[in-house]
Structure formats: structure tokens, C-alpha cells
């Protein structure tokens, strides 16, 4: 069904959703601030990593709530609120740093900022999927690509510029970042709106669905979807893929710097400001480059999943990473390490680019926002588990931290690959639902 109603340009909606994600994705540059923060305040890897972990955990909780309530409030209100809370997280974080209060930093940047992230994140993804039933994987991949590029903007543009302007004053860096992000998120949020009911893009013919299947999906409830074995397996492979990627997002700069140090002469003075600065610059460069792959992976794998199938894409994403993490156990070259990190981030982004379309295909458009918001809890728990694994190894086994981390990731991904082999692309129909629809029709 088409409509003669004057509609906004759907590509403008998608572009503004991408811009919103770009601002929110600056959270992925956390490892850029981790080392200077630890050096200034004397916090451990584990203490500093909890700020990032809490932000991702509360992102997932808020995204679940946002997905459920998106039909009630609409995308614009949730996106505006999300942008306000995320910016507030930076402002509260700045005050927490000014008084060296770690619990307040947890509350401000982690909890409040994380809630803002969740409300902002789920909105443009679910909205873009409604505008583009003909290009679900490609366009939702494009929108979440913005989130992956956020680390590039923060680690190579905003962060270095503000650090230079303020003479490495983290308090002012957080304040200035909050102002910029507040402006960008509010502008982008103003353009987000749902298409009218029954919207079909011109020239697009929805795939044929039997009346019994359509009726069964229309009549099913969110609890039937969320308590199904299929959802549990989809959640688990998403969770495992996130753990593997977020390990690097939270610690890629320190891990690279450790590898570079290992190859430097024993006489090197690692407290020399010039050496510290050079190492930090190397870490920032890897964050920036890998964030490009994180972003492109969302669009690349999302588009590929449109062609080869959703679960087929996930099998490639997960299976190829098992090989990569095994290879990382033997890598001594910072360059090869960086290349493999970029591939892992390409696959990490690919999970986010492929999952929205997979949810929409399997559970239908009616419950897409609710089910997708709930599957993002995998992101929250992965955001705790992944960084804390690396932090634990770095704090307790500093010499073997990388090897232990890569071994754990390879094992987790192998289990994920086995689970993915039990999944398929078929629509989910609750037990007995089809028979009920046919009986009603009679």
C-alpha cells in the first residue's frame, strides 16, 4: 500500500539517525582517556574500565525499555531525551573528575550517560527499519555505522583538539565534549519520525507471506518471542560476538602500547614524556582506524546479509574470528596485531549491522522494536564481561594478559559458532498459533 500523504525524505531520516549514532558512538573512544585518567588519579585498569562497562550495561537496559515504549512516545521524544542524558553524563563526569570522585563518575558517565545512550541508540535503528523494508540490512547497517565511527571522531578530532586546548585538562575536555554532543544530538533527533501505518516504498513489493503465517505473527505476543529458544540462541551468539569485539574497544590502546614496549630496547625510559606521548599517539591511531572498520562492518555485513542470509552472515562473522584470535596468540608485530584488531572490529560491527534485519525477518515488523531493544541486553552484559576479562588479566597477570584474553575469546566464539549452526532464517511462529488462525478463519 502506498500513500499520497506528503512524507519526509526517508534518506534524510536515515542520515540524521546516522548523525545521532555518530555522537553517541564517542563512548567507544573510552580507552583513549583510560591511561591518562589512571595516571592522574591512580585508578587501576579494573576501576577505570567499570566506567565504560556501566555505560554499556545501562545502555542495554535503557534500549530495552526504549524499544518497548517507542510506539508510545515516538522516536523524536526518546531521541531528544537520550541526547540530553548522554550529554549530562559528560557534564557530571567532568564534575566527578574535578573532585576525583570515582563513584560519581560511575553514576554520571556510566549510569546516566548510559541510559541516554540506550534511549538514543534504539530509536534511529528501529525507525530506519520501518522506512526501509526494502533495504533493511543495508540501511540499519548504515545507521549503526555512525556509532562505530564515533570513536574516530572522539579519538582523532575532538579528544586531541580539546586535550591540546586545555593542556590535558580532562575536566575541561569532558565539559567541551558535552556541549558539542548536546548540540549535535538535539539537531539530529528533531528529524526522526515514523512512517505512516501501512507505508510501502514506491516500487517495492513485500515478499509473499501465507495468510496463516501473517496471522500467526500478528497475533503473537512479545513474551512468546522473548521466551522462545530461537531468541535465546540469537541473543547468545550476539553476546559472544560482542564480548570478543568489546575486549579490544575497551583496551586496544593499552594492548598495542604493551606490544610496542615489548619490542623496544630494555634501556628505554617509559616515563619519558616524549615516549609516553608517542605510545599514546599510536594507541589513538589504532582506535581511529579500527573504528572505521567497526563502522564499515555494520554496513558491509548488513548489506551482505541481505544477499546471503542473516544466519549465514553470522556464521562467517563468528567462525572467521575464531581463526583470528588463535592467530593473535602468536603475533609479535604491532602492525599485524593492528590489522587483526581491525578485522575483529569489522566483525564486531557486523553483528550490529546484521541483527536488526535478522530480528525483523524472524519476529516480524510489529514487535521489531521490542525484540530488538531486548536483544541489546546482550550488548550490556557483553560490555561488562569483555572489558572486565581484560582488566582482570592486566591487573593480575600483566605479562600473560594478552595471551589469556585471546584464548578466552577464541573459546567463546567457537561455542557461538556451534550455536549458530542450529539457527536458521525461518520466521518464528509460536506453537499452535498457525492452527488457531486457521480455526478462526473457518
Description:
By secondary structure, the protein is mainly alpha-helical. The protein has a single domain, classed as MFS general substrate transporter like domains (Growth Hormone, Chain: A), CATH 1.20.1250. Helices cover 79% and strands 0% of the residues. It is built from 17 helices and no strands. α10 packs parallel to α15 (377-396). The radius of gyration is 22 Å and the shape is globular. The relative contact order is 0.16.
Summarize the SSE layout with pairings.
Layout: H1 10-24, H2 30-41, H3 45-73, H4 75-98, H5 102-131, H6 136-165, H7 170-189, H8 211-219, H9 222-226, H10 229-262, H11 273-308, H12 310-328, H13 334-363, H14 368-375, H15 377-396, H16 401-420, H17 433-441
Helix pairs in contact: 1-5, 1-6, 1-7, 2-3, 2-10, 3-4, 3-5, 3-14, 3-15, 4-5, 4-7, 5-6, 6-7, 6-11, 6-13, 8-17, 10-11, 10-13, 10-15, 10-16, 11-12, 11-13, 12-13, 12-16, 15-16
Amino acid at each position: 500500500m502506498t500513500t499520497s500523504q506528503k512524507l519526509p525524505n526517508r534518506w534524510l531520516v536515515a542520515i540524521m539517525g546516522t548523525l545521532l549514532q555518530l555522537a553517541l558512538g564517542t563512548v567507544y573512544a573510552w580507552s583513549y582517556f583510560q591511561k591518562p585518567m589512571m595516571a592522574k588519579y591512580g585508578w587501576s585498569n579494573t576501576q577505570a574500565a567499570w566506567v565504560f562497562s556501566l555505560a554499556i550495561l545501562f545502555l542495554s537496559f535503557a534500549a530495552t525499555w526504549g524499544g518497548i515504549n517507542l510506539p508510545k512516545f515516538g522516536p523524536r521524544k526518546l531521541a531528544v531525551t537520550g541526547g540530553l542524558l548522554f550529554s549530562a553524563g559528560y557534564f557530571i563526569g567532568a564534575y566527578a573528575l574535578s573532585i576525583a570522585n570515582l563513584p560519581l563518575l560511575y553514576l554520571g558517565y556510566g549510569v546516566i550517560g548510559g541510559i541516554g545512550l540506550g534511549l538514543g541508540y534504539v530509536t534511529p535503528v528501529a525507525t530506519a527499519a520501518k522506512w526501509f523494508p526494502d533495504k533493511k540490512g543495508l540501511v540499519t547497517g548504515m545507521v549503526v555505522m555512525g556509532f562505530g565511527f564515533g570513536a574516530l571522531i572522539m579519538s582523532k578530532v575532538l579528544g586531541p583538539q580539546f586535550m591540546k586546548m586545555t593542556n590535558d585538562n580532562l575536566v575541561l575536555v569532558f565539559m567541551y565534549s558535552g556541549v558539542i554532543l548536546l548540540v549535535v544530538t538535539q539537531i539530529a533527533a528533531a528529524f526522526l519520525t515514523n512512517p505512516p501505518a501501512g507505508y510501502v516504498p514506491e516500487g517495492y513489493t513485500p515478499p509473499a507471506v501465507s495468510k496463516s503465517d501473517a496471522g500467526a505473527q500478528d497475533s503473537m505476543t512479545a513474551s512468546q518471542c522473548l521466551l522462545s529458544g530461537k531468541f535465546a540462541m540469537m541473543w547468545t551468539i550476539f553476546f559472544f560476538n560482542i564480548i570478543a569485539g568489546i575486549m579490544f574497544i575497551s583496551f586496544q590502546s593499552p594492548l598495542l602500547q604493551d606490544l610496542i614496549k615489548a619490542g623496544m630496547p630494555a634501556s628505554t625510559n617509559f616515563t619519558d614524556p616524549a615516549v609516553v606521548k608517542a605510545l599514546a599517539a599510536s594507541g589513538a591511531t589504532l582506535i581511529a582506524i579500527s573504528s572505521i572498520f567497526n563502522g564499515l562492518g555494520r554496513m558491509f555485513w548488513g548489506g551482505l546479509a541481505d544477499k546471503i542470509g542473516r544466519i549465514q552472515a553470522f556464521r562467517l562473522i563468528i567462525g572467521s574470528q575464531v581463526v583470528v584470535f588463535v592467530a593473535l596468540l602468536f603475533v609479535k608485530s604491532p602492525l599485524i596485531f593492528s590489522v587483526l584488531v581491525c578485522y575483529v572490529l569489522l566483525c564486531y560491527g557486523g553483528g550490529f549491522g546484521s541483527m536488526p534485519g535478522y530480528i525483523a525477518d524472524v519476529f516480524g515488523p510489529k514487535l521489531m522494536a521490542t525484540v530488538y531493544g531486548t536483544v541489546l541486553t546482550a550488548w550490556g552484559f557483553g560490555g561488562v564481561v569483555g572489558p572486565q576479562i581484560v582488566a582482570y588479566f592486566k591487573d593480575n597477570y600483566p605479562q600473560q594478559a594478552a595471551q589469556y584474553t585471546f584464548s578466552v575469546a577464541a573459546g567463546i566464539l567457537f561455542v557461538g559458532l556451534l550455536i549458530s549452526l542450529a539457527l536458521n532464517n525461518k520466521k518464528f511462529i509460536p506453537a499452535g498459533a498457525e492452527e488457531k488462525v486457521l480455526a478462526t478463519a473457518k
